[in-house]
Amino acid sequence: MAESRSDSISKSVQVISVIAGVVLSVLSFNSARVKEADARILELRKYSDQRQDEVRRQQIEASKPFLQLRQDRYMEAVHAAAVLANPKEHTAQEIATAKKRFGELYVAELSMVEAQTVEGNMKALAQAVDPSLENFTEGQLAAYHLAHALRDSLIKSWQVHDTLVDNPNR
Fold it and tell me: Is residue 170 part of a domain?
C-alpha cells in the first residue's frame, strides 16, 4: 500500500509536471505571438508615416508651379501698390504705369492665383486708389471669372492642397 501510494504520488507529480510544461509552453508561445504582432503593428505605422510624408512631399512638389506663379504676381501687385500708395514720390508716368498694371492684376492675372484674403485687400486698395477699378466692364467681369476658373483648373491639375490655396470659395 505504501508503494502504491508512492507510485500514485509519483504519477501525480509527473502529470502535474507535464501539465505545467504545456501551460508554460502555451504562455510562452502566446507571449511571442503578441510581441511579433506588436512589432508588425509598429512596422506598419512606420510605413504609413513614411507614405504620408512622401505624399506631403509630392503635394508640395506638385504645388510649386502654382506657388511660384502666385509669388511672381504677388511681387508685381506689391510693387504697383507701393507706387500707388506713395504718389508724391513717383512721376505721373510711373503712377499711370502702376495703375494700369494694378488693374490688369486686379481684374485677371492675380485673380488666377490669389488667396481670398489677398482678394479682399486688392479690392480695398482699388477702392482707395481708383474707385472706378471696382466697376468692372462686361469684358473685365468675364476676365475676372475666367481667371477664377483657370485658378480652379490649375489647382486641380497641379493637385495643390487646399491649405496652400487658402480660398474656401472654390
Answer: no
